[in-house]
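Protein Entry — a single chain follows
Next Lines — sequence and tokenised fold
***
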Amino acid sequence: MKTAKNIAYSVVGVDVKAVFVWVFVALALAGCSALPAPPVRAELYDFGPGPVGAAGPAAPLPPIALAAVESVGLPDGSSALLYRLAYANAQQLRPYTLARWSQPPADLLAQALRERLGQQRVVLSGNEALALRQGQGPLPSVLRVQLEEFSQVFSSAEASAGWVRVRALLADTSAAGETPLAQRVFVARRSAATPDAAGGARALAEAAAQVADELADWVRQQGR
């Protein structure tokens, strides 16, 4: 009889221990679920790796100075990937919450221009051109660029395109200063494959490349 009671007590003890373990596990899981979720990082986009091994012309063109690209009408220094809903309010620029550029668009455009112009000539920065001005010898022409539009424009909820508008000024330089030579506005529009940030980033990169090509051809047509 005593043995039976001991067996019963041991069975009850095992059951109590099992219940305690399960309660502890449940509380631990509940505590984990109550922890704040880690923040979602925004996806970064740029214009891609660029051309590889692009050959220049047989006779290189004269050097040119590329001034820092300025942003006009866009958030200064912002790396936000912007879009417009033309079917709702085309005047409102909206940023994607979980997507942005690796650099401000003006800096990315300057990089694209430098790569494209550099296929045909030596491209100097503004500081390098200033150093030449303080010395002797011929001075390179200066290319000044303003970025006026750089956004993904939605004509409907499913259709969009990357829009890039650039104003370029080409000037000759001398010891006395700069003399404007020519000015032109370049506009490029490339359709986005998908109505999202990834599609917009790709379309904008393609539009920027088109602007860089057209701008380089224009500078060459000016004899510079």
Notes: Residues 133 and 175 are 6 Å apart (CA to CA). Residues 1-14 have pLDDT under 50 and may be disordered. The longest strand covers residues 160-174. Strands lie at 43-45, 64-66, 70-71, 80-85, 90-101, 123-125, 141-154, 160-174, 177-191.
